[in-house]
């Protein structure tokens, strides 16, 4: 606003100088009428001098006016650029509100606010762009959204079925492409060599892992914990993990200092027997002794094809303490 007043003031001064010039010209013309040639020449010279002086006086004012106009134009361009930046989502403030972001996510999910429980809605920056992270549940399904904080556009979203439960052993999608929860549990139990009556299931749910739908199956038997990932389409075991929880062996406690350990070959043999492979089938074989919770153990690692095995063998008794297998 101050710059506008200054520009108006300069324009007023320029107008005054123009008026002075016009008055000088008029006076010179009137004075020259009816005068002698010598007087007319003198008057003409005086008029030319007045015009020159007035013009020179006006020039700085014109220059100042031009500079002010340029400054105003630059400021307008800067404001336009800033508006464009905010519109592209790379600014420092959000254009839409949290409620707008939530509504955008709900609309995309085909849900209403009464159908969901919101877990998290907060502003974050992703790759230089301000986004809202919106997370909510509906029934046993979890939804995660990223909403552009400037435009309200959906940047990314993720959907997971948690604790998936289908009656009558269905476990199938409408296209029939997935095995049932019961099938997944049976696959894990068969691999572990256990019956359903021998275990306590902790969870069985459908999840997505590296773009593949899998069942996560977790259960206990006695003091041992089992974790399995089962391919939801084929029933194939993708990975598994076994841990002996709260392991107690009073008969052999304290023997670790006596050096009464099984050999490396015996530890390897225990792992190979459990995995059902021969040493000649393996690659990247590594065996080393370590201490875990004060107990001496052999850690045995090897690959068979693209499958990686990891075992912990009690160095005193040869018992299998833990193992896992991963298909790369």
What do these coordinates show?
It contains five helices and twelve strands. The protein is of the alpha+beta class and 328 residues long. It has four domains: 2-88; 98-161, Nuclear Transport Factor 2, Chain: A (Roll), CATH 3.10.450; 167-246, Nuclear Transport Factor 2, Chain: A, CATH 3.10.450; 252-320, Nuclear Transport Factor 2, Chain: A. The strands form two sheets. An eight-stranded antiparallel β-sheet has the order 5-6-7-8-12-11-10-9, with helices on one face. Strands 1-2-3-4 form a four-stranded antiparallel β-sheet, covered by helices on one side. β5 (200-209) and β6 (212-221) form a beta hairpin. α1 runs antiparallel to α2. The two termini are 68 Å apart.
